[in-house]
Amino acid sequence: MNASATGIGPSVNATRFRAEHAADWERLGALVARMEKGSLRSLGDDDLLDLPRLYRTTLSSLSLARDTSLDRALVAYLEQLCTRAYFQVYGVQSSATRQLAEFFTGGWPRAVRDLWRETLFCAALIAGAAVAAFLLIRSDPTWFYSVIPPGLAGGRDPSASAEMLRGTLYERGEGGLMVFATFLFTHNSQIAIFAFALGFAFAIPTVLLIMYNGLMLGALFAVFAARGLGYNLTGWLMIHGTTELLAIAIAGAAGIRIGLAIAFPGELSRMDSAVRAGRIAATAMLGTVLMLLAAGLLEGVGRQTITDDVLRMLIGGAMLAGWIVYFYLWPAFHGRNAR
């Protein structure tokens, strides 16, 4: 039944309708405006109790306004007010600081923990490729140039002397070590980002990138170990490499999770399956950016100022232990205590 069927003119009906409910609308609008400004604590007990009632009343007003074909301006006003109120009543009311704390204490480690199988696979892939490259180049050094082009090796190839290689491990300043350190950080950061982004191609490029990173690692060890510097290279890499390689493994795991979701969507559509996997993968990948920043500081500052091999290894080992506890051990221990 519309307004004309009742014998009441639309303008009179609209006027009467506004007069009966305008006070509730204005009060709801005032409360929503205060909440939107972040002043939820300024609401009193009466305000908090009235908020759900005012929201339901305004929804009823909107429904009635649509059914009776009231003027469009009033309908638009009520739609906007109900939308704003919905996000304040049912939305997440937490500060940026609280959301950031939730990311570090719950969201990020939970996402990484959920990807443990894919992360373990990536770590095994890096280690396996490194061992394969090491053995291959030790048996035939010419394979080194198939893994690392001469322009990127910067003279750190099978033809380099022990003195030259040793110098690259301990020199400071803006020399070759700084250039090579910058290359390694940039290269590994790109691998992490591409390993995640290319997961949409059924994870095949992701697996290849992770494998190539392991091949480069094994190629370097083959060259330095041939000159009796394998132990020294271990310290040089560990101080930042434990964090950096773990970040790459997690990024690869995130890409593989998305690729598998697309390749094997199950009962879901490929898009829905990718979206579901993407929520976890994106959270994990966001955290790896922070890990790469930490690795960059260890690489660009720590490795330049700390030249003792044992200390480098201790720092790298402590970082790896810290990440393992943070991602895998502390949440489980914390959960048992909470229960």
Features:
339 residues, mainly alpha, 2 domains, elongated, disordered N terminus, disordered C terminus
Helix/sheet category: mainly alpha
Q: Percent of residues in helical segments?
A: over 70%
The low-confidence parts are 1-12, 335-339
Number of continuous helical runs = 13
Shape: elongated
Radius of gyration: 30 Å
The major sheet is characterized as: none
Number of strands: 0
Q: In total, how many domains does the architecture comprise?
A: 2
Integer average pLDDT: 84
CA distance, first residue to last residue: 58 Å
Strand percent estimate: under 5%
Strand/helix succession: HHHHHHHHHHHHH
Topology:
Elements (H helix, E strand, L loop, with lengths): L9 H27 L8 H23 L4 H19 L5 H19 L1 H24 L4 H4 L2 H4 L8 H9 L5 H22 L6 H23 L3 H34 L6 H36 L3 H30 L1
Helix pairs in contact: 1-2, 1-3, 2-3, 4-12, 4-13, 5-10, 5-11, 9-10, 9-11, 9-12, 10-11, 11-12, 11-13
Structural notes for this entry:
- With 339 residues, the protein is an all-alpha fold.
- It has two domains: 4-93, no CATH class; 99-338, no CATH class.
- It has helices spanning 10-36, 45-67, 72-90, 96-114, 116-139, 144-147, 150-153, 162-170, 176-197, 204-226, 230-263, 270-305, 309-338.
- Helix 9 (176-197) packs antiparallel against helix 10 (204-226) and helix 9 (176-197) packs parallel to helix 11 (230-263).
- The chain is elongated, with a radius of gyration of 30 Å.
- The model is unreliable at 1-12 and 335-339 (pLDDT under 50).
